[in-house]
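User: Before I run my own analysis I want an independent prediction to cross-check against. Here's the chain; please return only the structure tokens and, at the end, one sentence I can use as a sanity check.
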Amino acid sequence: MIEHIIDTLVGFLGKLLPFKWAQYEFMRRALLALLLTGPITGAMGVHVVNLRMSFFADAISHSAFAGIAVGLIIGIQPKFTLIGLALLVAFGIARLIRRTDLSTDTIIAIFFAGTVALGVAIISRQKAFGQSLDAFLFGDVIAVSSLDVFLAICLFIAVFAYLLHAHNQLIMIALDANLASAEGIRVELQQMLFSLLLAMTVAISINTVGILLVTAMLVVPAATARNLTFGAGSNFWWSVGIATAAGLLGVVSSFYFETATGATVVLFSIVAFIISMIYRWVKRR
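Assistant: Structure tokens:
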């Protein structure tokens, strides 16, 4: 049922787009996945930057090493073990930040080191896993499946439904957590929910962008939007638009230039960031 729905959407894109690259099903499937994950990373990235959670996102993405290795060794689809471990790491970090006197970056670094070490230890014993990891490290446009697209659709709905409710609360928490608490916002709950949703975002985006680049898709569009705008609302929509445009341009350009799709998407984001810096510099003069 799910595969039939996704195949219908992919087929519709083929009729809608009269381009050479759109003749290939894997390109249409990749485009659909990136048109979903682009807005997701753009929207979540605004709050990642505001809440200073870039290192947190990086730790979650690198926990994928262990999640993938566990899935491969026990014979379960790595996508599911990856998501499961990402959620576990996000929950653990969020809980420990509240329960210890250690600094946030110290706790994140401990989880980062622990999960990477676990993944490397498992992989070093099973050297045949090396090739299986390449697609996760760098992203693989050809490997985007109906399951990946379906998960992206579910995440898209979850992210925008959550942010519709919590966007202003997260902005308040980023400005002053104590004031937000005094205003009746359940700070700890919102931080936990955002952390878990961010873990899902990172885990599901890995297959299209790759472990090494997924954090860039969260941070760069949001940083670019901050250079171009001043209001919280316009900042949000600019970030979503930039991430979506980078995804579209990246997947099309990667076809013609025969480059890695994830890397090409991030490079377009970087170009947009450089342009935004020039714009900001000119405007200040």
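Sanity check: Residues 146-175 form the longest helix (30 residues).
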